[in-house]
Amino acid sequence: MPLPMKTLKEVSAELGIPEAEIRTMMQLQKIRGVMRRGQLMFAPDEIARIKRQRKTLPESARDAPPPPPPPKPSIPKAPPPPTRVPPRPPRTLPTRPTDL
Questions:
Q1: Residues 38, 44, 31, CA angle at the centre, nearest 5°?
Q2: What is the pLDDT of residue 16?
Q3: How far is CA 31 from CA 21, 23, 24, 45, 65, in A?
Q4: Is the Cα dihedral 27, 33, 39, 44 positive or negative?
Q5: Would you state the pLDDT for residue 60?
Q6: How far apart are CA 80 and CA 77, in angstroms?
């Protein structure tokens, strides 16, 4: 006799995961679920797989060192003063030779 499938509410209560997170995992195809009688149902093997995967998460997070503090914002250096371009000499128009 197959084991009974559980609803989304039962799985959420059993695993301690919000229903929205379980729905999201299903939409991302991380877990499998089916719609039965208008409710989202999960197989016992799928629930066990979620438990197994989540069990390793807190243990690994416990052994990890705390994350480093965020870097302090540095004060930006003042930009160098703009270089002055020497003024251009005035343009002189060529003079016409005059006939005298």
A1: 70
A2: 87
A3: 11, 9, 9, 11, 30
A4: negative
A5: 52
A6: 9
Q: Alpha carbon 93 to chain centroid distance?
A: 66
Other beta carbons within 10 angstroms of residue 86's beta carbon come to: 5
pLDDT band at 58; cut points 50, 70, 90: low
Q: In whole angstroms, what is the distance from residue 13 CA to residue 84 CA?
A: 72
Q: Please answer whether residues 9 and 19 qualify as being in contact, where contact means their C-beta atoms are separated by less than 8 angstroms.
A: yes
Q: What one-letter code names the amino acid at 95?
A: T
Single out the residue of 4, 1, 9 nearest to residue 40, CA to CA: 9
pLDDT digits (tens, 9 = 90+) for 71-94: 888 888 888 888 888 888 888 877
Percent of the chain with pLDDT over 70: 85
- Residues 11 and 22 sit within 8 Å (Cβ to Cβ): yes
Could you tell me whether strands 6-7 and 34-36 are parallel, antiparallel, or unpaired per DSSP bridges? unpaired
The whole-model pTM stands at 0.52
